Amino acid sequence: MQKNIIIAGVGGQGILSIAAIIDWAALEMGLNIKQAEVHGMSQRGGAVQSHLRISDQEIFSDLIPLNGADIIISVEPMEALRYLPFLSKEGQVVTATDEFKNIGNYPHSEGLITEIKKIKNHVLVDIKTITCEIGNHKAGNILMLGASAPYLGIDVELLKRGIRTLFERKGEEIVNSNIKAFEKGMEISSAIKQ
Q1: 112: part of which helix (H) or strand (E)?
Q2: CATH topology of domain 2-193
Q3: Are 192 and 123 a contacting pair, CB within 8 Å?
């Protein structure tokens, strides 16, 4: 088993929390992990990405080569497009459609989505609408984790336990709300895979 995952977005969107949950679950499965993070500007809104490599064999580098990513998980559509050169031919893109316009010449949203739809394997997630439906607008990153779960090769119950571990200090209500977001994300991808 080997998975090369790029997790992308902007500062404040919970990119590193997604990586931490996947890391925790992979370690619980006895897998090897390597992770490299690039944090954005020292304020919210800067580009953030994490290279995450998981394998049942030894991993020698924490960086994913061009055309080497099995999945790109992005909490922002332009950031998904930024990392497409890393995606393998059969790779999967799971991205939010919600934009974070952090630059003056941010591309038109229809153009971004049109480009993403050209990718053979893609899942588009409307974070704002779904997090409003479930009553937790801060759970967009966990919604995206759920939408990517069917493609990760990681035990779903361990991912849920990782969510619990990460959020348990914030109380049961927050834990349950994030589990609900995760499950809603899984529903989105399951509907697409059928």
Answers
A1: helix 109-117
A2: Pyruvate-ferredoxin Oxidoreductase; domain 3 (3.40.920)
A3: yes
